Input
Amino acid sequence: MKLYYMTGAGSLASHIALEWAGGGYEAVRMTRSRLRSPEFLVLSPMGTVPVLLDEDLCLTESVAILAHIADVYPAAGLWGGTGASGRARTLQWLAFLNSEVHKAFAPIFYPERFRFGVANADANVDDIAAVARDRVRTLLGRIESQLAGLSWLTGERSIADAYLFVMLRWALTTKIGLAEFPDLAAFLRRLHEDRGVRAALAVEERLAGVPAPGRPDVSLPAPGRGSLLAEIVGVVEYREGEGVPQELRRGAVEVVVGEADVVISWSDEQYRGQAAMPLALFTRYLGDGAIRV
Ligand SMILES: N[C@@H](CCC(=O)N[C@@H](CS)C(=O)NCC(=O)O)C(=O)O
Output
């Protein structure tokens, strides 16, 4: 199988499912500009990822791709339990994640696309994104109650969990945060320890070259002297003003060192996030291995 993906996009769910399936595959990195190339539009007329090629089958749409992976590799048990009821429950959550949660992020990633119609033409992009954040929180609340007492969305690991992982990662990416959803936060942290999740993320975030932990002695650039690449590998929290501590999404980030603070930047999908933290706190995270440089 051949998967076309974009770093950190919804295609990460299919990437994780392919890892869980264990059958071997090829992953093709796409950039936003390559999505519009004539060759790619033949495969994906809407110019979106994921796309999965499996011999003469060419599939778009995450739900179809995830279902195909689960069907082709039954031994991996990716339908979340045996029989029609396990499959139906998994499909129910896949549909919820795809048609409700995934879509609810769109005005945060692409607020300008939602400035249509006379009434909305002057809408402020920040207001559009704020409404969307509230909607995502409502939807996450529904999943939080489902997850109570469960390790997996339907009780057993399924393709829906790969999708949920990506949606929760986006919640951190876009600063919605998971502080009010302890079960979702625990799920996300647990999946970050999963071998398949780590393998897919390592490819997407080009983390293969990141050094092993235990280099807290690394010399940081002098204040105002350039940036460095780092990887968030553990629980790293920052604060927006007087707000509650928020967790940074794990993965590749860029760090700019100032006199007393560092500024950490990341991008996923169309979103560019930035957070500041005291230099002393950053150094502590380096020391305990939660951040690698
Ligand atoms: N309904 C599709 C949505 C695919 C989609 O919107 N993919 C995004 C990445 S998450 C994309 O490729 N966006 C590129 C763009 O819209 O320019 C699915 O579920 O797979």
